Amino acid sequence: MKKIVLSLLFLLILVAVFAQVPPNYRFVKTWHVSDRFGTVDSIPVDTVHLNYQISNPIDRFSIANSFNGNLGSPIQSKLYFDRPANTDFIFSNAYYPYLTNLNSTIFYNTKTPFSYIDYNTGGTTYRAEDHVKFLFTGNVNKKLNFGTTLDYIYATGEYNNQAVQRFAGSLFGSYQGKHYSATGVISTNNLSNYENGGTVDSIAINPLGLATKDIPTRLTGYSNFKQTQFFFTQQYSVGFEREVKVKEDSVRMEYVPVTRFAHTLKLDDVRKRYFEPTTDSTFYKNTYYPIKQTNDSSALQTMTNTFSISLVEEFNKWMPFGLTAFVENEIQRYTFNKDNLIKGMDQSTTRLGGILSKQRGQRFKYNVLGDLSLIGYKAGNFRLEGNAGGFFKLWNDSITLVANGFVRNDSPSYFLEHYDSNHFRWDRNFANIYRTHVGGTFSIPTRLFSVNVSVENISKYIYFDSDALPAQFSGNIQVLAANLKQDFHVGKFGLENNVVYQVSSQQNVLPLPDLTLYHNLYYDDIWFKVLSMQLGVNVRYHTAYYAPAYMPATGQFYTQSKTLIGNYPVATVYLNFHLKRTRFFVEYYHVNQLFMKGAYYSMPNYPIDPAEMKMGVSWNFYD
């Protein structure tokens, strides 16, 4: 408690020092880019003072997750449509929310240098978790921007042999010229987590009344995941100048691009290692190598070059759409164990594709993409996907309708078919996975209402069975999900509601909770005309189901039918403050554990943290 009080006093002093100058958010523009064509997708600057306490990667990933109970540990969303697309390196799926790469990079254009630092901490005295994030970015001139990020996690964990250490960072830049533009980022991730195999007792959390660090766990292992990524895209456009009337008696010249040529280079190096100082033959059914240690490793290096030519949308006023054709080459090198030796395999794939799109204007937008792998390792793979959306007014309300869908035929990852390690070996020949998806979102922003309905059919679905080995379901699996969000405001009180209903036609192959809930009740006010305050409590809950278990040696989630997980709420009481440049929060996580009995497991054998205090602070600087 002394540490908490001192930390609070320190935060208040910092707020008083740094909150004197008003923020200049209007001088900062931010956007994402796609990994193929460098397409800009503008996003707002993160300045919202509400719900700042939801700042850690786990809570931001999804409203319900399976994870090892500690920040930075392997994770899988319990909502099917929140899960990221599978990659060729199957071992990276469990670390997706923590990774700094192109998908998470935000690009900036600023009139003044912009930076921020964010620090979160929590946990008991000697089992604390710390998370520090830092950003600096600034423009050399109106066209050229550079920046850097750092992201560090150190979390000991409340349970034995659970510690996580993660370091990530990036250097990014962009140039936005009249004819030529370029965007680039280089990022690195190094995440290490101990593997304890979960608690020995899978029913009671703490039957002997022990301290959390003394509760027996089943394994002493260690995993290390590394990813280094380089991305660079450049575009050159040709066009003409035309006059645009500004006022009745004045005009200005505007450059109109007609054709755009683009090249994108992406280099990815991903590695996973699993280590046991002493080989455990009790936890694992099989041990293949006659050595005292386990030291499994695998890696994938990928180089992707994409060349495209586009007829840009701005050129034709009467038929406003963009048309793109592209060719892409992908070279991959798989590195793996084989008979306790490191071996490699090189593969190449060439694909052709095109895009028809309309992204300008507010009333109606669409984007349709198709590609086909013609030559090489993934020959025969194809994808057709698209989305379309419109905006219109109904009385005094704004209505938004968005539809999306895809048809995909994908060959399985090499590591799904072939793997060799100390505890697991498999050699499979799976058929291609065929998926069709249809979804849509209806929202009324003025009423704080939205509903998304998605349906997906999966043929030849590949999963990890009860023996934690890859298997292929011979039939079709249908997944239906309805995601409803409705917020209410009465005076200074707010209530946020998120309800997700899911149905899986094969719960023994693709298990999902039927109902998942998130509710957030709060009081929001402004004190002394400058200090924004939010006091509230949020609750997360899902119905009981046979949640997938976790296999440390391979980092995969696999089906099980012995332990039901769920039917237990997790409530958190919090207090947020926002004063000009500074935001900070204090929360009591899992407060209901103090007075409520129940099995608070995230997944079989892996409990979440008991009730504990957490806090965080964030500063923005514009100078």
Detail the topology: elements first, then pairings.
Blueprint: H1 2-18, E1 28-33, E2 40-43, H2 57-61, E3 65-67, E4 75-77, E5 107-110, E6 114-122, E7 129-139, E8 144-155, E9 164-176, E10 180-195, E11 221-247, E12 250-276, E13 294-311, E14 322-338, E15 341-358, E16 364-376, E17 382-394, E18 397-410, H3 414-417, E19 418-420, E20 425-427, E21 433-444, E22 449-459, E23 462-464, E24 470-472, E25 476-490, E26 493-504, E27 515-527, E28 531-542, E29 549-551, E30 556-558, E31 570-579, E32 582-589, E33 601-603, E34 606-607, E35 612-622
Antiparallel strand pairs: 1-2, 1-5, 3-4, 6-7, 6-35, 7-8, 8-9, 9-10, 10-11, 11-12, 12-13, 13-14, 14-15, 15-16, 16-17, 17-18, 18-21, 19-20, 21-22, 22-25, 23-24, 25-26, 26-27, 27-28, 28-31, 29-30, 31-32, 32-35, 33-34
Describe this structure in words.
The chain is mainly beta and 623 residues long. The chain has one domain: Maltoporin, Chain A. It is 4% helix and 57% strand. It is built from three helices and 35 strands. It has helices at 2-18, 57-61, 414-417, and strands spanning 28-33, 40-43, 65-67, 75-77, 107-110, 114-122, 129-139, 144-155, 164-176, 180-195, 221-247, 250-276, 294-311, 322-338, 341-358, 364-376, 382-394, 397-410, 418-420, 425-427, 433-444, 449-459, 462-464, 470-472, 476-490, 493-504, 515-527, 531-542, 549-551, 556-558, 570-579, 582-589, 601-603, 606-607, 612-622. The strands form seven sheets. It has a 22-stranded antiparallel β-barrel. The chain has a three-stranded antiparallel beta sheet with strand order 2-1-5, with no helix packed on it. A two-stranded antiparallel sheet has the order 3-4. β7 and β8 form a beta hairpin. The chain is globular. The chain starts with a helix and ends with a strand.
